[in-house]
Structures are given as C-alpha cells and as structure tokens.
Model the fold of this input.
Amino acid sequence: MSYQIVIQPSGHVIQVESGETILEAALREGFSLPYGCRNGSCGVCKGRIIQGKVDYGLYNEDTLSKEDVEVGNALFCCASPLTDLVIECHEISATKDIEIKTVPCRVEKLELVAPDVMIIFLRLPATQRLQFLAGQYIDILLKDGKRRSFSIANAPHDDEFLQLHARNYPGGAFTEHVFTTMKVKDMLRFRGPLGSFFLRDASEDVPIIFLASGTGFAPIKSILEHVFFHEKKRGSKRKMILYWGARAKVDLYLNDLPQHWQREHDNFKYIPVLSEPLESDHWNGRTGLVHQAVMHDLSDLSAYQVYACGTPVMVKAAYHDFTTQCNLPKDAFFSDVFTPSTSKA
Ligand SMILES: Cc1cc2nc3c(=O)[nH]c(=O)nc-3n(C[C@H](O)[C@H](O)[C@H](O)COP(=O)(O)OP(=O)(O)OC[C@H]3O[C@@H](n4cnc5c(N)ncnc54)[C@H](O)[C@@H]3O)c2cc1C
Ligand code: FES
Done:
C-alpha cells in the first residue's frame, strides 16, 4: 500500500512505497532530509509528525524518548507511514543535485597511523570522480550484502584518492579485514556520497567549534581543508576552533596536521584533549572529556555553530550540555555519530 506525505514547511509531496521508511522514500524521490546513521541511533533524522500515524520501527530509546513520541516526534529513518502524513522537518538543499552512486575502487595505500587506526587510500577508475560535500561519508559494500559507513577524510578539491580513517573493532566484519588481510590493489565497492554532515552557510560573524573524538577527526579534516582552500580564494576568515579528544597521545593520530593549520591560519585554533594520558606521553596539555573542555573555555555558545563527530556518547553529551547549559541554539548543532553500521543491505 502506498501513502502520500506532505513535508512542511516546504510543501513537497512524496509517495511512500510499501515497506519504505519516510527517509528512504524522501531520498528516492530526490528530497534531502537530514540523516546520519540510518539505524535509529544518532537522532539526526528526528522530525515531527503533524498529522497521521506511523509505525515507529526499531530504534534506540535513548535517541527517541517517550516524551519525544508524546510530542509527535519520530525518527524518519525508522518510521513508516500507516496513513497519509504531514511531517515537519528542514530539508537540505545542498545535496539535492549530487548523484549517489555505486563505485568500484582499488586500495591504493594503507597507512597505519596509530595501533588501531588505519588510513585507507582508495583509487577510483580513471574515468570517474566522486562528487561530494566535505564532511559526507560512503558505505563500503561488503560481499555478503552488509554495508559499513566511513567518512571521507579528504577535501573535494583534493580527490585523486579517497581517504578513510578506519578504527579497528576486533571481530568487525570490515575493519578486522582492513587490519589483517587487506592488501594494496584489492578491489572494493562503495555507495555514496551520503549524509548531511557538511558546513552550513552562515555569516562570517558566526564562529565554529569543531568537536571530534577519535576517528571523528576524518570528516572534520575534510571540512577544514575545504574551508582553508576556499578561504584563499574568497578571503573570508570565519573563526574556527577544533577540539580533538582522544584517550592517549598516540590516538591523536594526525596531531601534527591541525598544529600545522594553526600556524598557517590565524583564524584557526587547535585544542587537543586527552582523557587518559599515559605517563610516557609527558602530556601537559588539556585533559578530561573533550566537550567539557569547550564548556570550560566558552560558557556562552549562543553565537556559535557546533559540528561534532565521533562516538555516540561524546556527541550526545555535547548536544545535551551545550544546549541546556551553554545557550547553544538546537539548530546550530550538527553531527555525525559513529554508531556501529547497520547490517541491512
Ligand atoms: C555516518 C557514519 C560514518 C562513520 N564514519 C566512520 C569513520 O570515518 N571512521 C571510523 O572508524 N568509523 C566510522 N563509522 C563507524 C563505523 O561505520 C562502524 O564502527 C562500523 O560498524 C565498523 O564496521 P566493522 O565491520 O569493522 O564492525 P562491525 O562488524 O559493525 O562490529 C564489530 C563489533 O564492534 C562493535 N562496534 C563496531 N563499530 C562500533 C562503534 N563505532 N562503536 C562501538 N562499537 C562498535 C560492534 O558493536 C560489534 O560488536 C561511521 C559510522 C557512521 C554511521
Ligand atoms: S537516527 Fe535516523 S539517521 Fe540516525
């Protein structure tokens, strides 16, 4: 049975086929709703059902609370209509013209940059380039139909190779292969670009905080390299601060790079924060939880935009504490949450 959905405030109308979620139908029809994990864990796709009924699907109750449901919210990546609907959410115009495609590629280089972080460089066929927005991700398509999401760490202008920063999860269907048997010249297939974690337009007066934990640095690297590249051309200089959180020094696997950016760009500041520094690190920098370091430095975030990426626990704590204790407007927080990928094909 097919249902019709009206998206407010745009007034766009989509048809949902049987078995489709609201998000799947919207993306199939070319409308970009915000999303991240597509498995009910990150909350980026949360919106309001103004009229009609939905099956909420399977989701993480930390992401959609009972109170959320009471006020009409749903996760559009999980919910399917049971009637025609009117929904409310902010569509993103920036991705609508970018084709999502399935692309074969070859492993060009593997670089172990920390004991559990591998940088994978992928070469696309000579006739193909991937158009993407800095901050987006791809889904690696495994042979058994599983997909694994990885953010693109290079900027769009620097696209000779696609760069992924993969953290090793012992027993992980994909990452264990990366750390044990993957070789240069291996063939892979991926689908992308995906996701809505990219820089939103704002005036020069709106400073940005980038917040990364672990390999959450990857899409932020892409966004920052994109900004630095265009700054040269446009002369604009938005103030930007990167807080990169990790356990020990070795986990700041490209620490030299943001240090280099800080020397080169007077509108950029880098603050590494370690939660469990080793004695051998001889660390005299910041310690503790990375989002708390931001709150320590900036008690009022009402004039900022925040882009946060990495572990669910860090992103959720940052969203909660920044919006409840530091006056950050809810619509000024953008995130990609590195949840375990869904196994759905
Ligand atoms: C939008 C998006 C972008 C992402 N980008 C990146 C990226 O750039 N770099 C990166 O390293 N990861 C990224 N991730 C996370 C990555 O997709 C998952 O960690 C993925 O499940 C790893 O696949 P795997 O086959 O190795 O492990 P799986 O087979 O999926 O899992 C193996 C075991 O490890 C656990 N596990 C796997 N991933 C996680 C996790 N993230 N947190 C806690 N436990 C986990 C599982 O629960 C399971 O027990 C991203 C996730 C999303 C949703
Ligand atoms: S919860 Fe829907 S995209 Fe993450």
User: Anything to note?
Assistant: The two ends are 22 Å apart (CA to CA).
